[in-house]
Predict the 3D structure of the following.
Amino acid sequence: MKQLFTRILGIEISYTTKVEDFIKHKGPKITYTKQPLQSEFFIRSNELLFEQGINDIQITMGTWEDVPCFFSAGDRSTIPFDIFSASFYLLSRYEEYLPHIKDVHGRFSPKESIAYKYNFLQLPIVEIWAFKFFEKLRERFPEVKLVQKKYQYTSIIDVTSSHGFAHKGLVRSIAGVFLDLSSFKIRRMIRRILVWTRIRKDPYDNFAFLIALHKEKAIQSMFFFLFAEYSTYDKNVSPNNNKFKYLIKSIADYSIVSLATSYVSFGNIDLLKKEKKRLANVINRPINCSRARYNRVDIPETYRDLVTAEFTDDYTMGYTHEIGFRAGTSVPFYFYDILLEVQQPIRVHPFAIHDYALRDFKHKEEILTHLSSIHKRLKEVNGHFVTIFSNELLGGEHPVDWKDLYQSVIEKYAV
């Protein structure tokens, strides 16, 4: 209710379980129960928010004036579904507690979600519900005022491989040459040598371009650096490399620098704390924000680990290969741990677009069409548009010019 009323609509609310206090109150009021008391604004409650633990819930989809909804509330309810239970189901990631098949990286598949199955993944559905709910409230209580929040845009840059060829160390560099030769990637080997001899710039080193663009357009940006030892899935420059440290410090002068937690730190709190402390020592500032490598989130353990490691904000809530809203919202929310029945002190920032979800498109116009649709919907509900691009893809080879695409995204959707 705080998410819907306070954080989305900007309306302060209070609660009572005493019937006499409710009846005496002369201002706007809502009953959330099985039966209305009088002729007040009434929402018939589903059982979900009164239960404990996880149960196998059967979802039956309906519509509210052409908007998908579930947890039908019957004819007597002022709105046709329990908006609070439905929002909680999505925000708590209830469905991710239920038995499901994980992918090779232990991730929840978007195809398992009700948003994907019922075709509302690309809608900030919780905000849409909230604004429609407000219109119904205003019909009954004209004095209720909406506190207009502004649309926001945040650009996140994932730096899980700061350089393609430079600063990799002698052993990794030689191994790279042999790998290029064995796979007949002669052009790649030539580029590698040109970077070593400083004839050409490393293709992933586009940080000056990014900083200049962000500064020119005055946008909110964040850089998440993988700052971990080499492993199968963690292949950034060594955290002991002084040039890498200098790069991080220089970016921290212009943008927020945070931690992209490593693949091997998943489920390893001690390593998580070590990576966090090591990066904080480089920029001489606390590290409060995280993003998990490969967007790995295991509900609820991942957020428990982040709380233990003293992170306050996380930016992993989204899908790598699907456009849309994993938790049904674009607005940051506090994670609720259903098994412990407690709101954890970590704020979850959903993202809508990950650049890997755009790789199957062959033309810039196709991508911008999809992004325009998301942007339009977020503008309508004063949402928060978060996009994730990696310096690696921005510097890679692709039918689409990634730098040009990124510049278009900034110009079109930052406002």
Q: What stands out?
A: The CA atoms of residues 269 and 305 lie 6 Å apart. The chain has 14 helices and 13 strands. The longest helix spans residues 364-380.
